[in-house]
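Q&A log
Question type: sequence-to-structure
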Amino acid sequence: MSMIVSSIGQGLLWAILGIALFLTFRILDFPDMTVEGTFPLGAATAVTAIANGVNPYLATLLAFVTGAAAGLITGLLYTKGKIPILLAGILVMTACLSVNLRIMGSANVSLLGKKTIFLSHFLESLPKYFDSVFIGLVVIVIVTVLLILFLQTNLGQAFIVTGDNKIMARSIGINTDNMTMMGLMVSNGLIGMGGALIAQNNGYADVNMGIGIIVIALASIIIGEVVFGELTLNQRLVAVTLGSILYRFVLLIVLQLGFSTNDLNLLSAIILAVCLMLPQLSKFLHLNHVLQKGVAKYDED
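Response status: OK
Response body:
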């Protein structure tokens, strides 16, 4: 039972990354590689701040700000510097590696003996692993509701139109460069905040904790879409969270089968690849079924 609760808690915390990537990857149609740098950047910012006596809530907010700053730089490189999308993200992601080392002063920093969001009196009174479930649920509900409300505003609709068709968006007076930069700032800010929360839950920050993050976030999005099918935009935001939880359950099952935790990145990539290929696989299987029926009918004749 404790493993199930832990998986739900981890799924809720990691869902923040899925929703953040959904903004750029699905709505803005921007394959943002910055996330693998902003996730450890947010973790490094929060953990270093907490280790130096800063309030953990303020430290988490600082992580959002630093993540948003990295997203802004990517946006400027792309919109003003005319650097290709993928390359702009890779440049900022690479730069974040050095920035993270500067912030932490070493490859990793521990929070042993430090007060974090997960060490309040109320959360410590809860059963084991329920602290991550509570924090994750509160944060994901707030983030989802705020995004739903935002996307219903004129600014939010302009953001959606920018992702759908930039040429049309420009023709009706929308500044697509500003929309792109705003989306990258919000997305990477949320990813930085997610990194801060996960680092506090783990009890440490490490410069290499961003490796494979984009695959995990994409898995939440793809699994949610594959399992729940055609949904409205607001429903898809909720589906990302459910997809993140389902993804954690899949990993739990795989680990129970005897695989090593060293294989998690490989398993994540395989799970994502299978989910992405499901539509093609279903078409292929349906075609085989039709062919088999045709052969059977020919034999009868």
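Response note: The longest strand covers residues 108-110.
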